């Protein structure tokens, strides 16, 4: 009767091996643990049959029993690894199935443990009951119990991450293993464990690892994911449309009013509102750009020395301009003990704080918005604690955990919050939110910055004092395919009394330079039809080398995403100026190339 069981078990596992390995998708990386389980089960049944039919006694038979014992332990170890792999797949499914980089350590530990187990098994004595191997008197029972405990822990820890179907199937496999092992230790004469292994592997294959079933499951997951993404994109675009159209409505509306007005004072006020709305629109566009860079993983943090108080003053001035006609007071509380000069990315820090203030302005109709900055210093580091609090609508308790996620756009949340969280993560900082719905919100930013001694460096200042100098004897070649952009740039250059020559394409720029090379500076757009600014620059450089003249070329571009400045400078441009043109940045360029040394 026992021989019949042994033979039937061997035939069953052999049949499953044939079925499994005929499938084309049996050799994917994700199937490795189960593939090892099938092969181990087959080898185990072969050795079991060999032990049963041989009449040989002595050292050889003793060695066969020990190998059989080790492979049995190894089978349970593989199932422990199998449970862990399924748990990790489910846990990291929401992050594009990207497992942690140190996941290979798990495999290394597994190999080491199995080598130790093999050694212990070979040197440990074994006992028999009526010519049958007795598990109850060997260390193997502790190894097997250990792996069963691992499976149980994974089932408990992975309960929330597993699908109901997966969890049920894994639970059944675990209980069959545990029951068969328990019964085997109580009845060594019966091959219960071998039968249990075959049942477990068959059940595992048809309920969890069957390729057709897996394919259907994958298709369902992909369909559900696509549907969620579609809904999230629709919601995101709805919010984004509102964010863009709101300032556009102000710009377009006031523009129409100005065209029909002769009241100079009113026109100035309306133009100021247009400028504020334009900055709001730029903030939204910058947020979209930053978010796309964030998703690509290419956003960079550029650290340099900066004056803290100048940065805070700029943030205050910009925030005041955003308040418009709201019945909201803007207050600041700055710690006087903050070191004057720190090392960090002041532009990104300003962006984070302004995002928080913009969010507060948007959802506060009356009361107060407060920007408070405290610091804690050590010998070389300063921990900035930046708090933006408001008396606005507040945020519902259930929304606080998802406020920094782009897929959850609800009242009290803006695109700027998503970007701010990511920027702070990149800079090694943190952000927390406290809010009572209907009362107000408080955002708390913590960020460490290196202290720069003012005695070791020149005084750093970002204060803006714009006094256009006269450059009546200087000439600038302005290259842009957009007529309105040429008009704007020309008007911004007017206070310097510099002579401006316009070119509407790269080719027209080259035609002008062929006849006249007496320009002191070229301001050139890059993204132009037919010939880009970069292509035009390459030709200019070649001509300069032949004709022996030199004109500095500064790229003037709306391509202002992170990393583009470095790319343009590496392409041969002398400097970089982004659109919309900031008059202070333009002044810096003009001072450098028209007033200073070339």
Number of domains: 4
How much is the average pLDDT? 79
Helix content: 55-70%
Basic shape: elongated
Strand content: 5-15%
CATH topology of the largest domain: Rhopdopsin 7-helix transmembrane proteins
CATH architect. name of the largest domain: Up-down Bundle
* Oligomeric form: single chain
Uncertain runs with pLDDT below 50, 5 residues or more? none
**How big is the Rg?**
36 Å
Major sheet: size, sense and barrel closure? Answer: 7 strands, mixed
What's the helix count?
17
Structural class: alpha/beta
Q: What's the N-to-C terminus distance?
A: 99 Å
User: Mind telling me the CATH class of the largest domain?
Assistant: Mainly Alpha
Q: Would you kindly provide a written description of the structure presented here, covering whatever features stand out?
A:
It is a single chain. With 598 residues, the chain is an alpha/beta fold. It folds into four domains: 2-209, Rhodopsin 7-helix transmembrane proteins (Rhopdopsin 7-helix transmembrane proteins, Up-down Bundle); 223-293, Helix Hairpins; 304-451, Histidine kinase-like ATPase, C-terminal domain (Heat Shock Protein 90, 2-Layer Sandwich), CATH 3.30.565.10; 475-595, Response regulator (Rossmann fold, 3-Layer(aba) Sandwich), CATH 3.40.50. Helices cover 57% and strands 14% of the residues. It is built from 17 helices and 14 strands. It has helices at residues 2-22, 32-53, 59-91, 104-123, 140-157, 164-186, 192-209, 211-259, 264-296, 308-322, 346-362, 415-426, 483-493, 506-515, 533-547, 564-571, 583-595; strands at 128-129, 132-133, 304-307, 327-334, 341-344, 366-377, 381-390, 430-436, 440-451, 475-479, 499-503, 521-524, 553-557, 575-578. Strands 3, 4, 5, 6, 7, 8 and 9 form a seven-stranded mixed β-sheet that branches. A five-stranded parallel β-sheet has the order 11-10-12-13-14, sandwiched between helices. Helix 15 links the parallel strand 12 and strand 13. Helix 5 packs antiparallel against helix 6 (164-186) and helix 11 (346-362) packs antiparallel against helix 12 (415-426). The mean pLDDT is 79.
């Amino acid at each position: 009767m026992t021989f019949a069981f042994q033979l039937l078990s061997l035939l069953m596992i052999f049949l499953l091996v044939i079925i499994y390995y005929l499938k084309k998708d049996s050799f994917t990386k994700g199937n490795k643990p189960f593939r090892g389980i099938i092969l181990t089960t087959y080898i185990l049944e072969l050795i079991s049959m060999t032990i049963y039919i041989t009449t040989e006694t002595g050292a050889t038979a003793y060695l066969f029993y020990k190998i059989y014992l080790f492979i049995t332990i190894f089978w349970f170890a593989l199932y422990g690894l199998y449970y862990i792999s399924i748990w990790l797949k489910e846990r990291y499914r929401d992050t594009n199935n990207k497992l942690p980089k140190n996941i290979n350590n798990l495999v290394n530990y597994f190999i080491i443990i199995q080598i130790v187990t093999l050694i212990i098994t070979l040197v440990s004595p074994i006992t028999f009951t009526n010519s049958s191997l007795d598990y109850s008197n060997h260390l193997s029972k502790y190894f097997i119990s250990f792996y069963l405990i691992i499976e149980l822990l994974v089932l408990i820890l992975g309960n929330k991450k597993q699908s109901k179907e997966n969890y049920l199937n894994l639970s059944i496999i675990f209980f069959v293993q545990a029951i068969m092992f328990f019964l085997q230790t109580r009845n060594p004469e019966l091959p219960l464990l071998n039968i249990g292994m075959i049942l477990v592997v068959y059940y595992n294959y048809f309920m969890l690892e069957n390729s057709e079933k897996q394919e259907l499951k994958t298709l369902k997951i992909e369909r559900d994911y696509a549907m969620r993404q579609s809904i999230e994109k629709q919601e995101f675009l709805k919010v984004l449309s509102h964010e863009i159209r709101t300032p556009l409505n102000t710009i377009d509306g006031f523009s129409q009013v100005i065209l029909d007005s002769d009241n100079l004072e009113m026109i100035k006020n309306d133009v100021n509102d247009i400028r504020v709305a334009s900055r709001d629109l730029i903030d939204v566009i910058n947020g979209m750009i930053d978010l796309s860079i964030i998703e690509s993983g290419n956003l960079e943090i550029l650290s340099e020395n900066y004056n803290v108080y100048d940065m805070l003053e700029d943030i205050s001035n910009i925030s005041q301009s955003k308040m418009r006609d709201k019945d909201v007071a803007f207050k600041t509380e700055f710690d006087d003990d903050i070191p004057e000069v720190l090392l960090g990315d002041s532009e990104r820090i300003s962006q984070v704080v302004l995002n928080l203030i913009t969010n507060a302005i948007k959802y506060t109709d009356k009361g107060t918005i407060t920007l408070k900055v405290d610091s804690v210093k050590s010998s070389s580091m300063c921990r900035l604690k930046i708090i933006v609090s408001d008396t606005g609508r507040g945020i519902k308790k259930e929304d606080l955990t998802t406020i920094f996620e782009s897929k959850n756009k609800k009242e009290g949340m803006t695109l700027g919050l998503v970007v701010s969280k990511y920027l702070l993560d990149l800079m090694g900082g943190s952000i927390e939110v406290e809010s009572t719905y209907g009362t107000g919100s408080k955002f708390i930013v913590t960020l460490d910055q290196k202290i720069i001694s003012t005695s070791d460096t020149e005084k750093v200042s970002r204060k803006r004092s714009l006094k256009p100098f006269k450059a009546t004897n200087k000439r600038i070649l302005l290259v842009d395919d957009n007529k309105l952009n040429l008009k704007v740039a020309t008007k911004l250059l007017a206070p310097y009394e510099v002579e401006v020559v316009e070119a509407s394409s790269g080719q027209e720029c080259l035609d002008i330079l062929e006849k006249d090379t007496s320009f002191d500076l070229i301001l050139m757009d890059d993204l132009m039809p037919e010939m880009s600014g970069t292509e035009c620059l390459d030709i200019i450089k070649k001509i300069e080398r032949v004709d022996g003249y030199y004109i500095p070329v500064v790229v003037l571009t709306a391509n202002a995403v992170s990393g583009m400045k470095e790319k343009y400078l590496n392409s041969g441009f002398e400097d970089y100026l982004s659109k919309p043109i900031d008059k202070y940045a333009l002044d810096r360029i003009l001072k450098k190339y028209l007033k200073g040394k070339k």
